[in-house]
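Issue: copy button drops trailing tokens. Both records pasted manually instead:
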Amino acid sequence: MHTSQRGLSLIKSFEGLRLQAYQDSVGIWTIGYGTTRGVKPGMSITKEQAERMLLNDVQRFEPEVQRLIKAPLSQNQWDALMSFIYNLGAANLESSTLRRLLNARDYSAAADQFPRWNKAGGKVLAGLVRRRAAERDLFLEAA
């Protein structure tokens, strides 16, 4: 399974587009639509480069979702999980109760785990509250 345009749009809407490198809320150098790999202070990119970086990051995370999730997924569930893993990384999904419940095919209980992932640097962030709510809504939406 691959990330749909709707999934990419969800990621873009929460990551935003920044063409100059910046430090995120926990001090990680970031650019484009939330890309962190290889980003250095003072770096700048074009919108086209940001799009390519996003697609490269998504292609890197798709095999991680396939590896970690054994339960059948709808396209909407896949896209919600891609937004989650794009933001939090594979290690957090791997160790999560969300993953355990999902692999047990308890989709409803798994969906209820999204809102728990609303902190960065130990603080609840309004943007993460909104993102997790949007991911949960998409996850629960009939395909």
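Record 2 (pasted manually too):
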Amino acid sequence: MKRYDRLRQIRRLDPEKDSLTIYRLSSTYEFPWDYMRALELALYRTYAVPSIGGLLARTAELTDRTQRRYDDTTLLLDAIVEHGFDADEGRSAIRRINQMHRSYAISNDDMRYVLCTFVVTPRRWIDAYGWRRLSSHEVIASVVHYRTLGQRMGIKEIPRSYEEFAACLDSYEEAHFGWDEGGRKVSDATLALMGTWFPRPLEPATRTAILALLDDSLLRAFRYDPPSDLTRALVRRAVRLRGRAVRLLPPRTTPSHARQNWRIKSYPNGYRLDALGTFPVSGARGCPVLATDPSRAPSAE
């Protein structure tokens, strides 16, 4: 197989009817590293919304148990990609996501915004740093994939096109990004977790590199001192060079799934999808995305 053969395969498929196949090919063969980084950034963006970041801090799940919550979220979302929406594993993952969210008052607007980050952030990341830009087939397939996920989660008024997803995300962030002490704590905990993925002497440099990849709106919301223009330019150029290097490599011949990722550390002896995530009781901590409108909580799958 040559470097662009899989893209040709993707273009022969129907982006609506074959959306899951295309999304699998794109996220697990063509851009597994980029999708992982982009989806991490997608969730991270939500902490800059005080209604989300502040409540997340009060649950303590993403400050006291950061690694486990990272692992659970990644494994549940990826199980749907690997197995499909209607397979037992996919249905189990969606059911577990809905059980967690149904236990808390979550506004439809907040849920829809988080869904938008899953669609928009990967495209923007890959177009900036990937070994090639996403094709129109891949963009449409991503939209269909996350529309389907949103429908299974009971989210209302889901955007229909990539342009609508992007407009929804941008307008939401413009209206809601802002300082919150709890959101900053969750952000700091997440940056600390990412630092543990590298040798200890590199942890300070890792934090600086991550901050250099953030846009100004995020830096302002968390009140981080922005890295110098030189640092930003060097870090972003390094990530772009990585993409160019990947372009010269032979294509992957096996898929890359989250369960194979060495950054997933909480389950060395295996796991069950129906046991992942939080199991809150009344007054307990737990939901990974919180809001304040009980009338808009998602339905069970």
